[in-house]
Amino acid sequence: MKRLHVHVGVDNLDASIAFYSTLFATEPTVTKADYAKWMLDDPRVNFAISTGNQAAKGVEHLGIQAEDPAELEAVYGQLEKAGRPILEEGETTCCYAKSEKSWISDPDGLVWETFLTHGEATDYGSGPSLADIATAAPSRRGPAGACCG
Fold it and tell me: Which residue ranges does UniProt annotate as crossing the membrane (predicted)?
C-alpha cells in the first residue's frame, strides 16, 4: 500500500518536533540536526520537516512512497499519463535515505515526488532543485542542485 509523503520547511526544528510529536502522539522515527521524519500508519503518511534545505517555509513538496518495486512502477505509469514533464532521478540519497525516485509538478508548480526507499544514509544527500522541477521542460532529466530544495 502506498504512503503519502509531505515535507514541510520550518524555522525552528526543536519547536516543530515538539509540536508534531504532540500532534501525532509519537516521537519522530528519524531525527537529525536539520531534519525529522515520522512514519505514521494512521494516517498512512511519511511526514518530514527540515531547516535550511528548503526553498520556502511551509509545504515544500508532496509525494507518494511506494512499498515495493512493482508499486513504484505502477505509480511511474500514472505520472506518464499526467502529461507533464518528469524528472527521472533514479537511485539517489536524499533526506537521510537511499531511494529510487522521479519528480513531477502540477500545472501550478506544486512539486510531487514518487519514490521507493530501500535504506538509510548518514548524510542528507543531494538531488534536483524544486524550482527546476516546477519549471522543467519535457527533455529535462537527471539530478541538479540540493536534495528537495
Answer: none
Number of structural domains in the chain: 1
Give me the phi and psi of 16, to 5 degrees please.
Answer: -70, -40
DSSP assignment, residue 94?
Answer: E
Would the CA dihedral through 66, 55, 104, 140 be positive or negative? Answer: negative
Q: Domain of residue 72: give its range.
A: 3-134
78 found inside a domain: yes
Between 82 and 5, residue with greater pLDDT: 5
Cα–Cα nearest to 125, from 97, 103, 101: 97
Domain presence at residue 88: yes
CA separation (Å) from 64 to 44, 69, 139, 144? Answer: 11, 13, 23, 21
**What is the distance between the alpha carbons of residues 50 and 34, in angstroms, rounded to a whole number?**
5
Which residue reads 521524519 in cell numbers? 37
- Domain containing residue 22: CATH number: 3.10.180.10
pLDDT mean over 99-125: 87
User: Which tens digit of pLDDT belongs to each residue from 20-65?
Assistant: 898 788 999 999 999 999 999 988 999 999 987 655 677 878 888 9
